Every structure is written in C-alpha cells, then in structure tokens.
C-alpha cells in the first residue's frame, strides 16, 4: 500500500492511501487522506484496525511521526475511527478534531495523549502549517453530527460518505463514466442519507465552493465535470427510503 498524490504545491500536498478490497468492514478499505506541510501533517478519518499498520508505514515514508499534529474524524462510525486508541499511543502531542456531538462516544476510546477538540455545529477551520482548511457542516449525511473538510487552495472537498460507493467495478481512482457509476452509489445514498432537507442544504452550501476533486470515504473520487454531475444527480435523488 502507498500514498498516492492528489495535489502538490509549495505550501502543502494531499495524498490518499491506495488499497484494494471491499469498502466498509474490517476486511476492506476506507479512503484515507493525508495532508502534509513542511512542519505539520494531518490524517483524516484514520480508519479501521486493519488500516493502522499500512497507514503508519506510508506516513513514515513522507514525514516524521512527531509532525503528525492533527487528526480529523468526520463522524463516529467504527470504520472511520476504530484506530483512535492506536494513534493515541503512537503520537504524543496531537489534536483530534471531531463533531462535538460525539464527545461522549469519543470518551470510550480512553485517550491519554490525543487532545479532543469538539467541532460545533456551525463548523470552523483548522490551521495546518499556515494552510487554512474549512470544516464544512454536513449533518445527517449520513450522521446526525457530520463534517467534511474543504481545502480552498487545493480545491478538494473531503466529503465523508457523500458520494461514497461501497463496491466498485474496477480499481480506477476517479469516476470515469458517471452514468455507469450511478448503480454503484444509488441505493447507498437512498438508504443512508435520511433527509432531503439536509441534502438540499448541503448542496446549496457546496455549490458556492470551487471544487476540483470530491473525495469520499469509499470508492472512486470525482474530478472536474464529474463533481457537477454528481451534485446534479444527488439534488434530484429522493433520499431516506429503505433499500429494496
């Protein structure tokens, strides 16, 4: 497994852990994203237990562990944050940004070293080595307390489970044909996105952003015109219905 580069500038770079397998349980993979600056780094949605060792090894190829100063958790699912207790032991002085709504759940990880910084419902920002990253509210998509992370410079939106595909037909990094990709995302979004109002609020918010890459937790990423195709499709989708 390796970190594949999504964006690189003088100020910072974005990378994604490349792995194969079914997407959501402990047998498979979550798309893990890593932002690296000269002096600080951040890991987003650190993932399930099986991903700790390969992610740690990949990070050490790019930076020293003491420069990993920030973790971000978009929501509370175990495939997203099961490794928190392991990262707590591996890094001695880092901050965990996660929804304040989930503070009592975070307590069950019995963290000794990670400093928990609860994100209020309206969102906020993270300053990482001089790079400003926005915390974008995405409540009820699919979690009651849910956030995404937007980088205005890289034009990347880490969209958590919005846009996620649990199973994909090939190992391509980006969606190649959105019309064919619909069958891989439709039932997941109908079932796991419970509110049309929350969906509409989110779409209105992200349409104000300049997005080149929409990067979900599972499956392929959306780039360029594929981002707009997804937003237009999602806008019309009636969500909150049980899968058939």
TrEMBL record:
Matching Pfam families, A to Z?
A: ODP (PF19583)
Gene3D superfamilies in the record, alphabetically?
Ribonuclease Z/Hydroxyacylglutathione hydrolase-like (3.60.15.10)
Q: Which segments constitute the Metallo-beta-lactamase domain?
A: 29-218
SMART domains in alphabetical order:
Lactamase_B
Which named protein is this? Answer: MBL fold metallo-hydrolase
**What organism, scientifically named, is this protein from?**
Pseudoalteromonas obscura
């Amino acid at each position: 497994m390796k970190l594949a580069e999504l964006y690189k500038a003088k100020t910072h770079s974005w990378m994604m852990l490349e792995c194969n397998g079914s997407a959501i349980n402990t047998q498979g993979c979550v798309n893990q994203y890593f932002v690296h600056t000269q002096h600080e780094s951040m890991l987003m949605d650190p993932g399930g237990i099986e991903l700790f060792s390969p992610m740690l090894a990949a990070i050490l190829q790019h930076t020293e562990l003491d420069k990993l100063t920030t973790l971000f958790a978009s929501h509370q699912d175990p495939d997203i944050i099961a490794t928190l207790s392991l990262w707590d032991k591996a890094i001695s002085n880092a901050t965990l940004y996660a929804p304040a709504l989930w503070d009592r759940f975070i307590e069950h990880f019995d963290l000794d070293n990670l400093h928990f910084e609860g994100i209020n419902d309206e969102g906020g920002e993270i300053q990482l080595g001089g790079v400003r990253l926005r915390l974008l509210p995405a409540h009820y998509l699919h979690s009651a307390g849910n956030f995404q992370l937007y980088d205005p410079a890289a034009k990347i939106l880490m969209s958590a489970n919005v846009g996620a595909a649990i199973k994909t037909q090939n190992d391509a990094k980006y969606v190649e044909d959105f019309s064919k990709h619909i069958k891989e995302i439709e039932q997941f979004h109908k079932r796991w996105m419970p509110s049309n109002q929350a969906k509409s609020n989110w779409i209105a918010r992200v349409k104000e952003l300049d997005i080149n890459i929409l990067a979900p937790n599972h499956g392929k990423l959306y780039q360029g015109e594929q981002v707009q195709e997804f937003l237009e499709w999602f806008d019309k989708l009636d969500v909150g219905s049980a899968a058939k």
